[in-house]
């Protein structure tokens, strides 16, 4: 099992960050983020939706084709 305290390589225990310090660090990192514009966001959304719909159609078509193939193999015509 892992230990409950973080230990550095030199053997000393690492001091925990207080919630206030953690919050300040999170806010500081979020200020560095380059947020997309509305136009970029709409473009990314549309590209993602087209990609997802295309692969849904592809997987559905393959599923239907393989299903029919397997059905034909196992329920083929009886030789008379």
Describe the structure in your own words.
The protein has 80 residues and is mostly helical. It has one domain (19-74). 64% of the residues lie in helices and 0% in strands. It has two helices and no strands. The longest helix is centred in the last third of the chain and has 37 residues, at 38-74.
Write out key terms for the chains shown.
80 residues
What would a concise description of this structure say?
With 80 residues, the chain is mainly α.
Structural class: mainly alpha
- The radius of gyration is 28 Å
Helix content: 55-70%
Q: How many H/I helices?
A: 2
Order of helices and strands: HH
Describe the sheet with the most strands: none
Beta percentage is under 5%
The number of domains: 1
Low-pLDDT sequence parts: none
The coarse silhouette is elongated
First-to-last CA distance: 68 Å
Please state the average pLDDT score: 87
Task: Report the strand count.
Answer: 0
Question: What is the fold's blueprint, element by element?
Answer:
Blueprint: H1 19-32, H2 38-74
């Amino acid at each position: 099992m892992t230990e409950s305290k973080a230990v550095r390589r030199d053997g000393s225990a690492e001091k925990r960050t207080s919630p206030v310090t953690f919050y300040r660090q999170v806010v500081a990192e979020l200020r560095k983020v380059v947020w997309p514009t509305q136009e970029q966001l709409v473009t990314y959304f549309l590209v993602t939706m087209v990609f997802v719909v295309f692969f849904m159609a592809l997987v559905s078509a393959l599923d239907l084709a393989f299903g029919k193939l397997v059905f034909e193999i196992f329920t083929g015509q009886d030789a008379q």
